Amino acid sequence: MEALQPVKEQKANQVITVLSLAIPIAVAILLGIRQKVDLGPWTTYLPHLNGIINSITSVLLIVGFYFIRQKNIVAHKRTMLAAFSFGALFLVSYVLYHLTNESTPFGGQGWIRPVYYFLLVSHIVLSVVVVWFVLRAVYFALSGQISRHKKTVKYAFPIWLYVSVTGVIVYLLIRPYYTH
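That's the Membrane protein sequence above. Prediction below.
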């Protein structure tokens, strides 16, 4: 049985690497598609749903951090798996929105414009990076490799929290420019 462990680890690393590359590439391709799919006007409300999802994810990340500081491992695990699930739901909703709708341009002027674009660019760059860290953190936790999980979350947690919170801030800044 010992000989199988490195094979499982190698396969898990391959899946994590493939997903970490495929997700941002797929999102970039979808953003570049000019011909949008018409699924109806309900899709115009997805950015608002995404703002809610990111808000919930941010709260769950903070609550999960609190639980692990309290050594409440069961509550921490449940909370972090919920945050991971909301992150996956966000990704589906985000892709669906951009598959069906043009991107909304930011209309703000003055000092808020560079602030918005700094937050947006840092959010996008780190959202690409965080996928690999989060997938590894979840894998290590679920496979019982707690010391590796702890090492990974030193990076995953602050990046994920930043991405989640800046997602909410970017949404609030662009919200006035949505048509729905």
